[in-house]
Amino acid sequence: ILVNTSTKKGLQIKSFDAGQPAWSKDSKKIAFVKGITPDDILQIYDIEGDSYKEIKLENGTDIGCGGELSWSADSKKVVYSCGPIDIIKPEDELKSWLYILDLKTKRSTKLIQGSSPDWY
């Protein structure tokens, strides 16, 4: 639920099996991953337009995508990770890969091995 601090009104965001939400840098959108692997979908809620956009995440042979997301400074790209669903040992994190998603083209590019993406 989003709460407007000045009006104290809440807004329920629709989601099912959703992951951690991530605010865009311009604070106009919220993105989260929903669905069950391998059908991971990035859902973006546009606050001003009160609309949703869904983008199927590309993950190649990797499984379990999008637990954590990070937006680019211009809010045109999102970086996410794909890898083992259950990370049991530290070496399992090395099996995860970071992907960058261009929101305009809806195309993902596999970048480097890693997890817990953050955009500076």
Describe the structure.
With 120 residues, this protein is an all-beta fold. The radius of gyration is 15 Å and the shape is globular. The model has no long low-confidence stretch (mean pLDDT 77). 0% of the residues lie in helices and 42% in strands. Strands 3-4-5-6 form a 4-stranded antiparallel sheet, with no helix packed on it. Strands 7-8-9-10 form a 4-stranded antiparallel sheet, with no helix packed on it. It has a two-stranded antiparallel ribbon with strand order 1-2. It starts with a strand and ends in a 7-residue tail after the last strand. Strand 1 and strand 2 form a beta hairpin. It contains no helices and 10 strands.
SSE ordering:
EEEEEEEEEE
Give me the Rg, rounded. Answer: 15 Å
Between the first and last Cα atoms, what is the distance in angstroms?
Answer: 27 Å
Number of strands: 10
Structural class per helix/strand content? mainly beta
Percent strand equals 35-45%
Q: Record the strand order, biggest sheet.
A: 3-4-5-6
How many helices? The count is 0
Model regions low in confidence, pLDDT < 50 over at least 5 residues: none
Considering DSSP H and I runs of 4 or more, what fraction of the residues is helical? Answer: under 10%
Overall average pLDDT? 77
- For the report, how would you describe the main beta sheet? 4 strands, antiparallel
**What is the general shape?**
globular
